[in-house]
Specification:
It contains three helices and eight strands, in the order H-E-E-E-E-H-E-E-E-E-H. It is elongated.
């Protein structure tokens, strides 16, 4: 092999080693979830309803731009950014629904709250349908939840209340963990509003 050929071979090998090193040093993917509010006994104010009230939550609809694993942040009113290594653990829609159900269970003091429709048919008194319009935010800025929700009397599908609600929570610091925590607080605010409506209507 000539000196030129040997030099080119060493150069190619060096480049390959650099590429392999860069791949091995790439940032790990981080996974996030929304969290429900604290349980009774931890400073959570609950709203008592009539005994044996059963609430079904669903269907829950989400906009298409949030139907992905990566976390979406808002750069401006007209620009969104999809994270590279920050993802939801599961789908955001399922995570949101689970947290909303858990929050209502706490706020309604243990009355039956379940995802609707469920695999096992059950009798429910009230049904809450939710259409999420926006659930995003900016790093170091605010998290925003905008949703249209409707409360039905399940027995005859009578519409009892329909409302569009918007909530904003400051993240307090930059980073995805702070953003997701703020988004959890917006879901808590929505849960409290729905629980209060059920409390008033059920009395």
């Amino acid at each position: 092999m000539t000196r030129l050929g040997s030099y080119m071979t060493m150069t190619v090998l060096g480049l390959l080693l650099m590429l392999l090193g860069a791949c091995g040093g790439s940032a790990p993917t981080r996974f996030y979830i929304l969290n429900p509010l604290a349980g009774p006994g931890e400073g959570v104010q609950t709203a008592a309803v009539q005994p044996h009230v059963t609430v079904g939550v669903g269907p829950v609809e989400f906009p298409a731009y949030l139907d992905q694993r990566q976390i979406v942040t808002r750069v401006s009113e007209n620009e969104l950014r999809i994270a590279g290594f920050e993802e939801w653990a599961g789908t955001l829609k399922d995570n949101f629904t689970r947290v909303l159900v858990e929050n209502l269970y706490v706020l309604l003091r243990g009355d039956a709250v379940e995802v609707f429709p469920s695999r096992v048919p059950s009798d429910i008194d009230y049904q809450v349908e939710v259409e999420v319009i926006r659930l995003d935010g900016s790093l170091g800025g605010d998290a925003t939840l905008s949703a249209r929700w409707t409360l039905f009397k399940k027995q005859d599908r009578e519409m009892l209340l329909t409302k569009k609600s918007s909530f904003h929570e400051p993240t307090g610091s930059p980073g995805y963990e702070a953003l997701v925590a703020a988004q959890s607080r917006t879901v808590e605010a929505l849960s409290r509003e729905i629980a209060e409506a059920i409390r008033i209507i059920s009395h």
